[in-house]
Amino acid sequence: MTEPLGGTEPPGVFEVSGTFDVLRVFCGPDGRHGNELGVVRDGARLRAVADRQAFAGKLGFSETVFVDDPERGAIDIYTPTLRLPFAGHPCVGTSWLLDVAELRTRAGAVAARHDGEFSWITARAEWAPPRTLRRYGTAAEVDALDVPPPGEWIYAWAWEDEAAGRVRARAFPGRDDGIDEDEATGAAALLLTHELSRALNITQGRGSQILTAPGPDGWIEVGGRVRLVQAGAAA
Fold first, then answer.
1. Which residues pair with 171 in a beta bridge?
2. First and final CA of the chain: distance in angstroms?
3. Chain segment 21-33, per-residue pLDDT in tens
4. Bridge partners (DSSP) listed for residue 119
5. How do the residues of the chain divide into helix, strand and coil, expressed in percent and rounded to 5?
6. Among residues 11, 127, 185, 194, which one has the fewest Cβ atoms lying within 10 Å of its Cβ?
7. DSSP string over 171-230
8. Which of 87, 133, 110, 147 is nearest to 221 (CA)?
9. CA 66-77-91 angle, 5° bins
10. Closest C-alpha among 110, 20, 24 to residue 56
């Protein structure tokens, strides 16, 4: 379950400032696009949920990660308004940044590996927040969609080449937090892979690329390219 602003812990006295890294996750073949991610490596300096939520809201990325233990890969994930037990592009990006073989999320342990230009995580579809997977007849229909009004979280998709597993997708979070369209969403790709029971090569947003592959016992791999945009940015 997601948790609303403030969570269950009392607010701290931390002033909403500090440094963080900025990554782009699920970049296209040319290294462009991808979904921006903020990573606070020294998460211990913001212990209260309310402080972390305020910082994530100030940054305004679709997700921000706080690293609680870099050696164990323990992380805490936030949107601008919600705390998440798991999310795809934060796990892919943070595992690449920390160079760890496993991440500890509130949903469970996420295995990670790096294979040349791609970074991969292994997770379960039931860890992903609820999404409406809405299929369209053609990729052109998906391209032509307007941003829907706030409400349900919609993952709009269509086959570009069904035989090859190539998908065109766009993601509309349906939240009133300034994120009208999510450029690349690993959790939604996880759900679509689970529903279709096959490996996928997804082009999402303006040109981001997400690769997936179902594995044994309900585990699914999600992978993509990660690029460092800025190290030690100041808030």
1. 155, 182
2. 29
3. 999 999 999 999 9
4. 114, 224
5. 20, 40, 40
6. 11
7. EE---SSS-SSBS--HHHHHHHHHHHTS-EEEEETTTEEEEEEE-GGGEEEEEEEEEEEE
8. 110
9. 90
10. 20
Q: Supply 19's token pair.
A: 């440094």
Which amino acid appears at position 228 of this protein? L
User: Is residue 78 within 8 Å of 52, Cβ to Cβ?
Assistant: yes
Residue that is written with structure tokens 């595992």 in the block: 95
Of 86, 97, 90, the closest CA to residue 36 belongs to 90
Length in residues, the chain: 235
What is the pLDDT at residue 16? 53
- Taking the C-alpha atoms of 58, 185, 118 and 64 in order, what is their torsion angle to the nearest 10 degrees? 20
The number of beta carbons lying within 10 Å of the beta carbon of residue 37 is: 31
Band (9; pLDDT cuts 50, 70, 90)? very low
Strands 154-161 and 166-172: antiparallel
